[in-house]
UniProtKB/TrEMBL annotation:
Signal peptide: none annotated. It holds the Pfam family FGase. The keyword Hydrolase applies. GO terms for molecular function: hydrolase activity. The keyword Hydrolase applies. This is N-formylglutamate amidohydrolase. Keywords: Hydrolase. SUPFAM superfamilies: Zn-dependent exopeptidases (SSF53187). The lineage of its organism: Bacteria, Pseudomonadati, Pseudomonadota, Alphaproteobacteria, Hyphomicrobiales.
Length: 264
């Protein structure tokens, strides 16, 4: 078994008060897992990772001098954007693709993947947010970056970007307003997905402690190449910088979750 880091931290300047996250940045697997019984082509698809998000996160982190945490393993191995008790944490089937390496799976292997990949990634996220809070002397603004497919089950998706959220509107409303201000894109508000997911990254690291946040989804065909990534980095960087300058987004304010009462 070879050493394998389940995350990468881009240091940035933690005192700037902004943290970027990319749960599904990469489609990699440790060598001992092979391809989980799948063809190589499966790892070019959205089922393996969020297409375009790794380079977009790197460009935004550089432009904003912001720390970022990137997940370095494929979501097919274990999904970092799911709670530990979520039944979709390790998928047996994803968008029609059966994953032989995930079924059957022993309790020992389930726990092994939590310990080697899922938990270290979330520990890195916790530590990066805590470092930003300590350096800046205030709650950081957290932005999570994802991408979605242009169509689902042969139905085209009209949104160019989307903002997903649970029940904390502090960063969401100004973000949507600024994204729509250019007038050249369609922005989804909790479309094509609902942002209230108990135990996911935003719930765990932002909703629970009361940190202002938003999850941005970009349509994958728009960031599938370097030109698209650069265009979206230019679009998003000044918006995120402006949001990060709002004092209202740097306090702790816990909002009730639409998923139900917090465990504590």
């Amino acid at each position: 078994m070879q050493d394998y880091s389940p995350y990468e931290i881009i240091e940035g300047n933690p005192a700037n008060g902004l943290v970027l996250l990319a749960d599904h940045a990469m489609n990699r697997l440790p060598p001992e897992y092979g391809r989980l019984g799948l063809p190589d082509s499966a790892f070019t698809r959205h089922i393996a990772y969020d297409i375009g998000v790794e380079p977009l996160t790197r460009e935004l982190a550089a432009a904003l001098d912001a720390p970022a945490v990137l997940g370095c393993f494929s979501r097919l191995l274990i999904d970092p954007n799911r709670g530990e008790d979520d039944p979709t944490l390790i998928m047996k089937i994803s968008d029609g693709a059966i994953i032989p390496g995930n079924h059957p799976i022993t309790d020992e292997e389930w726990e092994n993947r939590l310990n080697r990949f899922h938990r270290p990634y979330h520990q890195a996220v916790s530590q990066t947010i805590a470092r930003a809070a300590a350096a800046g002397g205030k709650a950081p603004l957290v932005i999570s970056l994802h991408s979605f497919t242009p169509a689902w089950k042969a139905v085209a998706r009209p949104w160019h970007a989307a903002v997903l959220w649970d029940n904390d509107p502090r960063a969401v409303f100004p973000l949507i307003e600024r994204l729509e201000a250019a007038g050249d894109i369609v922005v989804g508000n909790n479309e094509p997905y609902d942002g209230a997911l108990r135990g996911d990254t935003m719930y765990r690291h932002c909703m629970t402690p009361g940190i202002a946040h938003a999850l941005i989804e970009i349509r994958q065909d728009l960031i599938a190449d370097a030109t698209g990534v650069a265009a979206w980095a230019r679009r998003l960087a000044p918006i995120l910088a402006e949001l990060n300058g709002l004092p209202t987004l740097h306090g702790y304010q816990r909002h009730p979750s639409r998923t139900g009462a917090y465990d504590d």
